[in-house]
Design brief:
Blueprint: H1 7-15, H2 19-41, H3 47-63, H4 77-94, H5 118-133, H6 137-147, H7 153-160, H8 164-176
Helix pairs in contact: 1-2, 2-3, 2-4, 3-4, 6-7, 6-8, 7-8
GO biological process, one term: DNA-templated transcription initiation
Domain RNA polymerase sigma factor 70 region 4 type: 127-176
Family: Belongs to the sigma-70 factor family. ECF subfamily.
């Protein structure tokens, strides 16, 4: 059985399309992937959609396991983290919902190692809120859509009814403030 296998060997087994290796990887890294997806999506999407993103991360791992770089990586964490982050951002881009009635979702700050302590994290969130609320409503919509929901300028222009050049101007003003 593969349960007592080291990471490098697990990666090799997955690369050889061993389904048991995928199950071990899912058991070992499920919480890690959920954590990344939850930090990026927050409450912007319902629970079911977040679960689908998490599942898709492991489907992608399986589909592209032949491409795993076992020479340069000895663990799945960076690889899975990248897949999870990109899939979560893509899920946000695909949603047409824009939650501008309540901007609180946009103020969730991930708990990276350098911001994991409560007071520092709270100070970062406070500064972010103050900066965002200084923007006009249109600038705020553009800024949050672009930087939080990672939508393209073209999509933001279409959703807001603004010209692309206007969206770019609002983003520039938002960054200067």
């Amino acid at each position: 059985m593969l349960f007592n296998i080291d990471e490098k060997q697990l990666m090799l087994e997955l690369k050889n399309k061993d389904e048991r290796a995928l199950k071990i990887c899912m058991n070992k890294y499920y919480r890690y992937v959920v954590y990344i997806v939850e930090n990026i999506i927050g409450s912007a999407l319902p629970y079911e959609d977040k679960e689908e993103v998490v599942s898709n991360v492991f489907v992608a791992l399986w589909n592209y396991s032949a491409d795993l770089d076992t020479d340069n990586y000895s663990t799945f964490k960076p690889y899975l983290g990248t897949i999870a982050r990109n899939m979560a951002k893509n899920a946000l881009r695909k949603t047409s919902k824009m939650h501008f009635e309540n901007y609180e979702d946009a103020f969730q700050v991930g708990t990276n190692e350098h911001i994991e302590y409560g007071p520092l994290k709270e100070e970062v969130i406070k500064c972010l809120k103050e900066s965002i609320y200084e923007l006009s409503v249109d600038e705020r919509k553009c800024f949050i859509s672009y930087y939080y929901y990672t939508k393209t300028i073209a999509v933001i222009a279409e959703e807001t009814g603004l010209k692309e050049s206007t969206v770019k101007s609002k983003l520039l003003r938002g960054r200067k403030n």
